[in-house]
Design a protein that fits this description.
The protein is an alpha+beta fold. It is built from 6 helices and 13 strands.
Length: 316
């Protein structure tokens, strides 16, 4: 029967393995130790036996049933049968549990357990064994010749001590400055990268919008002839330099465009008429800026904070 081997296997996983109606094997953990003789021992678990713990906890029975492919009830009956055999043999013999220890009766006819101590049941110490420390060779002291100038010897330690006290502070200060410089550089370049990516994305979207507007056709029907007196106005703007505008809308009527400009100015925007589109529509801008970054920041504020319908235009 393989019951003794199953007990040994369970001691690696459990601190207590109870044998119904017989007793229980208990493990006790010890940290790594160094003996007086210089022997290093890894962390280990030592095994003891307690004959008072006889109540079945199911650990051994379940494990035995799993290994032997039998039912739980059948494994209990087989364990009880083996235990009865142990009790009879114990009266005249010594019970040996391989890798664990021996159980026998002493002169007072009481159960005595003698652990073998050859197996370490601590899984974290698998493969580790005890070893003897080799003594270090004594280093002979060097004879130092006395310096004729004793005053120099007296002041030399003080200078070294002052240097040693200052050097850690200087090192920490240097490390701190380097850390601040790295963080600042990372923040600056990441901000520049994000802004540049936003500008590129907006330019692509702007090109698609202009393409759609240019390709669009307007069916206005038949219009009656209307006489219009055209006076000099600033409706059509031809900028001498490049502006980056955030467009609020396009209007066919200059009056409607100027009304929109006045409305936006009253709301606090630096509104103005932008460059007219090729179809003759008057564009009204929330603002016309000298840099792309200002225009993009204004556009994102309008679209994502105020949820306004605006778009970006580069006036050349």
């Amino acid at each position: 029967m393989q019951l003794t081997r199953y007990i040994q296997e369970l001691l690696y996983q459990h601190e207590c393995v109870t044998i119904p109606y017989f007793g229980a094997f208990l493990t006790r953990s010890f940290e790594a130790r160094v003996s007086e003789s210089g022997t290093f021992s890894p962390p280990c678990k030592e095994v003891n036996f307690n004959q008072l713990l006889t109540a079945n906890d199911g650990v051994l029975a379940h494990y035995y049933a799993q290994k032997e492919a039998v039912s739980y009830e059948q494994s209990l009956r087989l364990i009880e049968k083996e235990v009865s055999s142990w009790k009879r043999r114990l009266q005249t013999q010594t019970l040996r549990f391989p890798g664990v220890g021996e159980i026998r009766l002493n002169k007072a006819r009481r159960i005595e357990f003698v652990p073998w101590g050859k197996v370490n049941f601590n899984l974290n110490s698998f493969g580790l064994s005890s070893f003897q420390r080799s003594p270090l060779n004594k280093i002979s002291k060097l004879n130092i010749m006395e310096n004729s100038n004793k005053e120099d010897l007296m002041f030399t330690p003080e200078k070294n001590e002052a240097t040693s006290k200052k050097s850690p502070v200087l090192r920490y200060a240097a490390i701190g400055l380097i850390g601040v410089a790295l963080v600042s550089a990372a923040y600056y370049f990441s901000d520049q990268y994000v802004t540049q990516e936003r500008i590129l994305a907006q330019e692509k979207a702007q090109q698609q919008i202009e393409k759609n507007v240019q390709e669009a056709t307007f069916d206005l029907g038949k219009l009656n002839a209307v006489e219009v007196n055209v006076a000099a106005t600033s409706a059509v703007i031809t900028p001498e330099q490049t502006y980056y505008s955030v467009i609020a809308g396009s209007f066919r009527s200059i009056d409607n465009a100027e009304k929109k400009v006045s409305q936006l100015i009253d709301e606090g925007y630096p509104a103005a008429l932008a460059q007219a589109n090729p179809n003759g529509l008057y564009r009204v801008a929330y603002g016309r800026y000298d840099t792309k970054k200002e225009a993009i920041n204004m556009l994102y504020f309008l679209k994502y904070n105020l949820e306004e319908d605006a778009w970006y235009l580069e006036e050349k």
